[in-house]
Amino acid sequence: MKKILILGQKSFVGSYIDKKLSFKTQKISFEKFKKKNENYLKKFDYIINCASNLNFVKKKYNQKYDYDLFVSNKIKNLDCKQIMLSTRKVYKSSPNIKENSKIEPKSSYSKNKLISEKKVQSIMNKKILILRISNLLGFDRNEFKRKLHFNFLDHFLKNIKKGILFKNPKIYKDFLPISLFIKILNILIKKDCYGVYNVSFGNKILLDKILNWLNYYNTKPFKRQSFKKSKNSENQDCFFLNNDKLKKIIDIKMSYKTLEIECKKISKEIFNEK
User: Fold this and answer.
1) Radius of gyration from C-alpha coordinates of the chain
2) N or C: which end of the chain has fewer CB within 10 A?
3) Helix residue ranges per DSSP H, the chain
4) What pLDDT, in 10s, does the model give residues 224-240?
5) pTM (predicted TM-score)
6) Residues 102-132: tens digit of each pLDDT
């Protein structure tokens, strides 16, 4: 059985991978990883970095905050492979984005991820699997307190606590429940895939639909409020990723019904429904 080392002791994604992946896993902090020697690291078939740094998220690229690059340099002479969790934000927002579509990162985080991707690929070659992920949906009651940056679900939680559910009648995006992400990751590891893959639902999903599913078990009163447009807001971006490359490798059906069921499971967790 393959052995997987996961970096990011407090990472929600890392914790979920550690609990749900079908392989033998071990999770440690990035600080502990830095001190590990080759005898320890060569026991693993894959290393997945889920840790990040606030300076990498918020500021201009600086190599000392690039944890993915640090991993590559540390294991480049070993047989173990690396999985890098990247972002769809490296692309220009548009429908049907393919792996070779136009690159146009806007935020510091997406610009830094793209720089890191190129550096890591040059070192690891066929020993690197880069996953450009869309909006992952998953809930951890303790996660909100320790985040470096907020995602779609975080904004939903923040607004619903205020009794607000925004109306977004024309805006669409691409979402993937973390449970489906784990199923995809299992297959990619099992088949020893490498290179760059889009990982997402693969079709446009209206925000209103997602919000209704996530709010399904909310029994407290709330009001619908029109979405406030902001000139530089990424919340207005409309996009979905093309998953054709991924579908040649995996056989997971990601229907709207499946997405609805998974979102309502998350809603049940959020609102403590039994």
Assistant:
1) 19
2) C
3) 12-20, 30-35, 38-41, 54-58, 67-75, 108-124, 152-161, 178-190, 207-214, 244-247, 256-270
4) 888 665 444 446 789 99
5) 0.92
6) 999 999 999 999 999 999 999 999 999 999 9
